[in-house]
Specification:
Low-confidence stretches of chain A: none
Number of strands of chain A: 13
CATH class of the largest domain in chain B: Alpha Beta
Largest sheet of chain B: 5 strands, parallel
Helix content of chain B: 55-70%
Strand content of chain B: 5-15%
Low-confidence stretches of chain B: none
Number of helices of chain A: 15
Shape of chain A: globular
Order of helices and strands of chain A: HHHEEEEEHHEHHHEEEHHEHEHEHHEH
CATH architecture of chain A: Alpha-Beta Barrel
Number of strands of chain B: 5
Structural class of chain A: alpha/beta
Largest interface: A-B, 32 and 30 residues
Oligomer: heterodimer
Radius of gyration of chain B: 18 Å
Order of helices and strands of chain B: HHHHEHEHEHEHEH
Strand content of chain A: 15-25%
Radius of gyration of chain A: 20 Å
CATH architecture of the largest domain in chain B: 3-Layer(aba) Sandwich
Largest sheet of chain A: 7 strands, parallel
Shape of chain B: globular
CATH class of chain A: Alpha Beta
Chain lengths: 354, 216
């Protein structure tokens, strides 16, 4: 049975048979150091490098999925230099300022608001000005499943506001925060509209709600002030004719029924370190959700190719029954992941193709 | 005679009542209680409840952050008195150097641990975030610290914890330093695999782990 990547992922999302388990990563998926390690001398740094490199990487791995975003018409604006690290500080289209300290993750330098009053006045960018050209190109020139990346109100909310302030304001300023979620979600529905018009095959909502020991905030708070808005977002995407794959790190057991009620079609990450085991989740929810993920990033960093191959084959064996399963790493493939281990993970999937 | 009780102080910690807690603490000091009594029987008692409820998913991160904020304002208020009392004969615990490892800018977990350790009587030297192995080595040596607490939030940066442990173990004069690690992606198995002396699954239990080592 021959299937394209797009057909394979669509079949998995519809719980239909596939000629092998689909495999691929969400979003950018892989850090550039990893891309370079895999494609070697073919790695390009010119203006079209990203498209060329990521297409070649996925062809090499035989991955089925490409992530792409609606792009802002305005590039990030250089606004200064960080006093401690000497690194450039950029203002992004949301209005927050960020920098990339040497060898570290991106750091928020200036949030979009310092006070609740600021936040009430804050306006998101106009999504209508964003471009779906990158999404359209992947759709037209490849047969990858084009999973357009969007966000919702929670994870993006704390990235723009700062984590501690965001968390404390959920308690101290619930009305302001609800208004904030509404603005973020409306904007992200707009990004999904652009993606749909450009031909995206599905929409990823990336929205971390939990850490390894459970939800960041009280599930009752989410039920009252957040999930009704997320449900509206999922429904709006369904109205565009596209499936919704939700990404959240962490242990989501306490939120599973709520996420199902929001209407999502797939759930990605399923990190074994967070007690999210796909074979077990499939037993309980497998008829209603497609699960994606489950290969521990630490295994890819510290294990051997033999161990990665064995774990991947066992996961496929225990999860492929009745479809509804896509294999991926449980987080971004970082530069710490050994290329041979990632190759072993992909090989263990693709060698099962019928 | 003050009408404020230790239970009320504990409740203010639990409720994250930053606005009122220092007034309550001041009233107890005026009433003749020592700073150490207020810390142990009021503030730490409240934070212990917060830790228990957090572990049982009965309290969540926003409430814990508000509690930690209230605790910090009270501990800052008490600090001069606590130092006076230490000089009068209270034995302080050992010094702890804490920091988030290289590549990682997250500090909430590390800050919670710092507040809890300071409250429990440890002297804490906070190196901040994105700290290189060499900076840990230098800070431990300069402060003659007995303990190191390493934090990471990212599964990518947790790999850098091993570099810190290796750097400290490489120094013969630091061979008695005990290293405890924690953070969202870290597990007991990982701690053992990289040669840490201890693992703390959360901020509340970190105090117990450090105290346990102090008793060894």
């Amino acid at each position: 049975m021959s299937m394209t990547s797009r057909e394979r992922v669509n079949a998995a999302l519809n719980h239909q048979p596939t000629n092998r388990v689909p495999v691929g990563e969400i979003g950018g998926g892989y850090v550039e150091e990893f891309v370079q390690a895999i494609i070697g001398d073919a790695y390009r740094t010119d203006d079209d490098g990203y498209y060329h490199n990521h297409k070649l990487l996925r062809e090499t791995l035989r991955a089925d999925i490409i992530g792409a975003r609606a792009l802002s018409p305005v590039p990030d604006q250089l606004v200064g230099t960080h006093p401690d690290w000497g690194t450039p500080v950029y203002r992004n289209f949301w209005g927050s300022e960020v920098t990339n300290p040497p060898e570290a993750t991106q750091q928020l330098v200036k949030p979009i608001a310092e006070t609740p009053e600021d936040l009430e006045k804050w306006e998101p960018p106009d999504w209508r000005t964003f471009s779906g050209d990158a999404i359209a190109r992947w759709k037209q020139e490849t047969d990858f499943f084009v999973m357009a990346t969007t966000n919702a109100g929670f994870d993006l909310g704390y990235e723009l506001l700062g984590f501690e302030k965001f968390m404390m304001w959920t308690v101290l300023e619930p009305i302001v925060m609800r208004g904030y979620y509404e603005k973020l979600i409306e904007t992200n529905i707009g990004f999904a509209r652009i993606a749909a018009a450009a031909g995206a095959d599905g929409i990823l909502i990336a929205d971390d709600l939990a850490y390894n020991s459970g939800p960041f905030v009280d599930p009752n708070y989410l039920r009252q002030d957040y999930f009704p808005l997320l449900k509206k977002q999922v429904s709006a995407i369904h109205d565009l004719g596209l499936p919704v794959i939700m990404h959240s790190d962490g242990d989501l057991h306490l939120l599973m029924d709520d996420l199902l009620d929001c209407g999502i079609d797939g759930l990605q990450s399923c990190d074994p370190n967070a007690n999210m085991d796909i074979p077990e989740l499939k037993q309980q929810y497998g008829d209603r959700l497609t699960f994606m993920g489950n290969i521990d990033i630490n295994l890819l960093a510290q294990g051997s190719p033999e161990e990665v191959g064995r774990v991947t084959r066992e996961l496929i064996q225990n999860s492929r029954k009745k479809g509804g399963f896509i294999l991926s790493a449980s987080n971004v493939v970082t530069k710490y992941c050994k290329p041979d281990n990632v190759l072993a993970m992909y090989r263990a999937v693709t060698e099962t193709e019928l | 005679m003050t009408t404020v009780t230790f239970d009320q102080i504990a409740q203010s910690v639990i409720n994250g009542a930053t606005g009122t807690i220092t007034k309550q603490v001041d009233a107890l000091l005026e009433g003749g209680f020592t700073a150490r009594e207020i810390l142990n029987q009021g503030l730490m008692a409240g934070m212990a409840v917060v830790g228990d409820r957090f572990r049982r998913n009965e309290m969540y991160l926003p409430q814990v952050l508000l509690s930690a904020q209230a605790m910090k304002s009270a501990v800052d208020f008490l600090k001069p008195k606590l130092l006076e009392e230490s000089e009068e004969g209270q034995k302080a615990h050992g010094k702890v150097v804490v920091g988030t490892v290289k590549g990682d800018m997250h500090d909430i977990g590390k800050n919670l641990v710092k507040i809890m350790l300071a409250g429990a009587g440890f002297e804490v030297i906070d190196l901040g975030t994105n700290v290189s192995p060499q900076n840990f080595v230098e800070a431990v040596r300069a402060n003659q610290a007995k303990y190191v607490g390493l934090s990471a939030l990212l599964s990518s940066t947790m790999q850098n914890m091993k570099a810190v442990i290796d750097a400290i173990r490489h120094e013969p004069d630091l061979d008695e330093v005990r290293i405890i690690i924690g953070g969202a992606p870290v597990s007991r198995e990982f701690a053992e695999a990289i040669g840490a002396d201890g693992y703390a699954p959360n901020a509340a239990s970190a105090v117990d782990v450090f105290k346990g080592m102090e008793a060894d």
